[in-house]
């Protein structure tokens, strides 16, 4: 029982500590909607999948591993809101 109480006494302050926010991009700045109209979000099965760049009204450039081996009809492209 003493060991359990000791462990709780040591772990409780760690659990109560507020998590520290660590930025994903060091030195970056926040972007507003419309700042990068050429960036698209590629979704598959309703969830986020990959990103891409809009080259023209009908062409998106993305990484090969994002689309290779998947049916074209399974993707949704969202542009103009990022």
From TrEMBL:
Peptidase S1 domain location: 25-82
Source species, domain of life: Eukaryota
Keyword Disulfide bond: yes
Gene3D superfamilies reported in the protein's UniProt record: Trypsin-like serine proteases (2.40.10.10)
One Gene Ontology term from the biological process aspect of the record: proteolysis
Entry keywords, A to Z: Disulfide bond, Signal
Gene Ontology molecular function, alphabetical: serine-type endopeptidase activity
Signal peptide: 1-17
A Pfam short name: Trypsin
Keyword Disulfide bond among record annotations: yes
Protein name: AChain A, Fusarium Oxysporum Trypsin At Atomic Resolution
Source organism of this protein record: Fusarium agapanthi
């Amino acid at each position: 029982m003493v060991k359990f109480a000791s462990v709780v006494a040591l772990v409780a302050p760690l659990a109560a500590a507020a998590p520290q926010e660590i930025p994903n991009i060091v030195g970056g700045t926040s972007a507003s909607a419309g700042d990068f109209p050429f960036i698209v979000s590629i979704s598959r099965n309703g969830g986020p999948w990959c990103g891409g760049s809009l080259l023209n009204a009908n062409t998106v450039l993305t990484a090969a591993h994002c689309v290779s081996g998947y049916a074209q009809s399974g993707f949704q492209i969202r542009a103009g809101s990022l």
